[in-house]
Amino acid sequence: MSTTPRTVESATTHVIPTGPFARVGRWSGRHRRWVITFWIVLFVVMVPFAGKLTGRLSQGGFEISGSTSQGANNVVAKKFTNEFPSNMTVVFSSPTLAPSDPAFQAVIATTAAAVKRAGGTVVGQVITPAQNPQLAYPKTRTALAQIGMTESLDQVLAHTKSIIDAADAQSTSDVRVGVTSGPAIYTDFNAVNAHDLAISESVQVPLILLVLVIFFGSLWAAGIPVVVTVIGLVTTLGALWFIAGWMSLSIYVQNVVPLIGIGIGVDYSLFIVNRFRDELREGFDPLDAAAITTGRAGKAIFFSGLTVAVALAGMLAVGVPIFTGFAVGTIGVVVALVAASLTFTPAVLVALHKRLFRWDAVALVRRLLHRPPRRVITDDGDFGFWGRWAAAVMRRPWTVLISATAVLLVLASPVLVMKTGSSGVTALPKDVPSRVAAGQLVAAAGPGAEDPISVVFDGTSASGLATRIAAQNFQSSVAADPQVSGVKSDLAISTDGSAVVVTVYPKSNEDTQAAQDLAGRIADTYGPRAVANSPIRVYVGGAASANRDFTAAVAGRLPYVIGLVMILTFIVLTVLFRSLVLPLKAVVMTLLSVLAAYGVMVAVFQWGWADSVLRFDHLGHVTNWVPAFMFSILFGLSMDYEVFLLSRVREYRDRGGTDNDAVAFGLARTGRIITTAALLMIIVFLSFGSNRLIPLKEMSLGLAVAILVDATLVRLLLVPAFMRLAGKWNWWLPAWMDKIIPVIEE
Q1: Which end of the chain is flanked by fewer CB atoms within 10 Å, N or C?
Q2: Number of C-beta neighbours around residue 567 at 10 A
Q3: Percent share of the chain, pLDDT over 70
Q4: Within 10 Å of residue 66's Cβ, how many Cβ atoms?
Q5: DSSP secondary-structure letter at 428?
Q6: Is the dihedral of CA 717, 720, 726, 732 positive or negative?
Q7: Model confidence, pTM
């Protein structure tokens, strides 16, 4: 196939669009001072709120309404008024002293006093081996102290660091002091996350600027996507501060929003600035160039953003608070960045058009190296490298289609054995204090001591005796389970005597499959058997049960997420391209990209193929919330390139080009920019992948792999090959649908 197209309508004579998108660009350019001022004022107003967001984010979001673990929490909170809402464990260890030695006991006593002083009213009690001798473990030279907190986890976190610091300060050369359990672990999660997030952002910003300078050749032009992204991010994070006042948002939101926002913001601005430069080169004045840019590239960005938002909305189908928070945060940042790209960006471009591309650093380097100027793609000339690439692909479409699909299927094959699970303290680096202390606790008291399973028998005040008898029968039967290391002999009885809690110690940590299977057997077998033929209800609480409930809920709803996202994406693309074939092709190919990313995640994080390279110990599973989250994210992000490529193909075809020439033109116009955009996203994702928290590492690597696969195997190989084979059927739409689908003007 020749890459020299037949004559089509010239770029400088084609009609300047006058639709709503073009009018937005022209209006923004004409009123550039007001538009720029508005966004700067909004940015300044939101900065302080964005800076305070962390204080409003919660550590929860994993609760499953109606689950047995949530039922246990509700009964304990309602009927056990003497129970503390949250607890921490202080671990004392010594290489030489036993817990009975006076020096050891002195450290315990001073630590208990220091913790009470540091915590104030938040610390309800501190139980040491002096009150409970079972907290001393002479064989391992270890002792424990239990801190009962009077506030819930989210409220306690504001005081946790001072309590931990007070305990750590009591360490001596003979006795080491560490703090672990819920609040301490979450405090370390926050500290590691904040530290690593700052590092990743410090790395990615210079790299993004470097790539943009190389692409545009101008520091002015390169700076615009960065400024737009920062404004969009800060605006969103500031808005989330207000939203967090009336709905729970997970601490992970502060990672997810920048992760998506930086990639989306830079990409959208990149396409807008590049199209504006193309129109200036065609001879249009700045206002006309802005109108054409937002009319065509802006329309594509709007629909791309709509597709991303629709895909992200799929997380709402999971029905779990953490996913609801993710959906709100990520949809918010997409909306903010689309709005900024369609208004602020053209306003700045018109304001700076004279100096925007004046100093071309790349052109200067090429002249110094005696190399010809970078060639400019035109509508009626040779389409250059990417045009020749498209021609080569379309000469052997079956070979390319089959080969690229085979590679994707090989990458995706490990997904057939993917296991999902929870990640507790083991998701932290090994040298983090709370994980070190947790390891010492497990070594002394056994794996189940860190977070035992709490089995709640809930009856009425009239059935108090029957409830206690049922609990005692349960103690006898569950003790025989091979995964139970012990059952606490004392029963915890509620204030009114209607409810009883039995504490079961599993042989495995709460984030292992064995502990979660034990929680399942208790909920399905041991518990119901103990209360057979009675109105007493049994609930299974504790981290193992909560992890089991969360994993089951997410896995059960994942098919609904996949179906909803695919259907909604198909509808949006059908409206944009006025075709049934292209949206179906886009959905199927994007699904292949996502499955390929899943496959790589299984190989790395479940099988441990890259432990030494990535410097972590794999958990033997993929974190339970990551696949559902990644599916929504990837389906949205992958559609970016589909929309930008096919919008250019459609634009050329509508001006009289053949189908094959339109594909070559589309790749010629977008091949370099799609490659650059993908590189920028990969830089963003891999920089976040340096985070030492394993769930974030999984998410970042998966996103980077998917974008790499999508921008290369899919957009540069599968798409042109398929479109060559489909020919005129690419644009097939039944006549009756053509009449009812609205025409979206540029």
Answers
A1: N
A2: 12
A3: 94
A4: 8
A5: S
A6: positive
A7: 0.83
